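Help: why these numbers?

___
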Amino acid sequence: MFNKILIANRGEIACRVIKTAKALGIATVAVYSDADASARFVKLADEAYRLGPAPAAESYLRADLILAIAKQSGAQAVHPGYGFLSENEDFAAACEAAGIAFIGPPASAIAAMGSKSAAKALMEKAGVPLVPGYHGDEQDPALLQQQANAIGYPVLIKASAGGGGKGMRIVEKSEDFAAALASCQREASASFGDDKVLIEKYLTRPRHVEIQVFADQHGGCVYLFERDCSVQRRHQKVLEEAPAPHLPQATREAMGQAAVAAARAVGYVGAGTVEFIMDVDTGKFYFMEMNTRLQVEHPVTEMITSQDLVAWQLTVAAGGELPLKQDQLAIRGHAFEARIYAEDPDKGFLPSTGTLVHLATPVESAHVRIDTGVEQGDAISPFYDPMIAKLIVWGETREAALRQMDAALAQYQIVGLSSNVSFLRRIVNHPSFASGQVDTGLIARHHDALLPPPATPSARQLALLALAEALRHKHDYPAPAGWRLNGALTRRLTFLLNDQNYEASLQHHGDGFIVHVGGTSFPARASLRDTQLEAVLDGISIKATVVRHGAQRALFDGGERLTVELVDPYAYTETGVHGETHLKAPMPGRVVALLAEIGKKVAKGSPLLILEAMKMEHTITAPGDGIVQDFYFAAGEQVNDGDELVDFAAE
């Protein structure tokens, strides 16, 4: 076994690898960019070396610097994690040439599976079923359109070197193909340095079921069963589970055997995932791709098999045999993983950046696990994936695991940026998901239920916010005019939510208050310690959390979150100098392309410019019929959240 390894990655996967390495007595070396200088994984590692500036191209993608640090530190092996250089055949080969073990498959296996087109050709020869499509090398747009027309719409355009949902577009009709292809190629080039694409028939009710495989250098190869990753948004996974619900045992075994055959066909070594797309209507499955690395969702497999896959990786990379044979592996219980992202589901899942002002999580146990790379006070930057954590739960049955997930999500509290926690809870509690009737269209099909309009604050919520504010005034600063905590005057508070004002007022009464919300009045007693509010409201005892962040007030009560702004009646509000005609950036990013001509009339919904953030494209469209008067940034320039992008004159 190795004495020291270097982890060529960051965030939660770096922390995850360090955890197992420490358990095995292996020293760890971290590499970091300037943006990650004080990150959790840097603190956990035994040694840490600076790579370079924040952009990945100048840090985590610098294979030369990483190998130089590996030699300097005396690391015997490199664990690539996932993303960045994990599926880079040149990096794997360079490690081998330098006499440093690559904790992953040989470069030849990465090369064979690195191109989706080449991989599908290989699988076709091996007799693995494929979805009808075009996987050729010819990339002339006219030919690609011709192939799409022949396959029949809808079709899916996919980056050949892609992954993680990047460089993918669904095209419903022929006239939309050219624009979708151009967008897909831009995104693929930016994310993977390769704009080659393939085209496949898009199944209208598909499930995404993948098989975890593992192979050693002695001819051993097993599968550790399947994961269902069907719940997705923007082709990116949101919730994963193992085993897959309602999957017949015969299908499970057939998929497992096909995955092992695929791994053997390329001389695979280490951890890999063979992804299949499964037609809900027919039960047939088709090879989609093979990820030649450890997957983000590997913890659910660990939970149902009681195995440490990173420990397996280290054993195999060091030349050892697989710890178990196929007949020694069994499924026990059920597990879910929820990806907690810094993003705003109500705004099309746009990434959110900022500081984790407040972070509270459920307590970890044998049933609840949290893989994370951040702590309270850390920042989520625009340079990398916006994942905050992976929440993994286990139960004896799917129903028990689902209850665990709901309870754990209810305890997750994040303030300082937007997150998808409430959205995840709605999925977990939706009847279709709860019953296991999953496919990749679940979120879109139940959009209105999963992404409802913001609810009106309840009298209870407003009362709790008002009580917390009153008690903070008592502790933090002098009482304002017209308010005495121990007097009889009334304190009126106004909270703003979605451009709507909500009012609450309090009067001191005995050892407590009388709270007035709307037309309702009720007695209350309360105490506040830091963010923890304990109240008796109309005879009901309540424990809640209220976090103050500037004018923002975030209330966590009974597993529900409400975020409002406290309106200061004396505050001066400056109106925008350009009025409402200037379209602003919804997130930090880079302008990729300007799509409209200055001075020309455009129709409502017309694309005006494309903004790229975290390797995903977002199109700014015309809010109505009108004229583009000016662009404030050129293609290639960086913008900040809220920067004015377009001067648009609406008719």
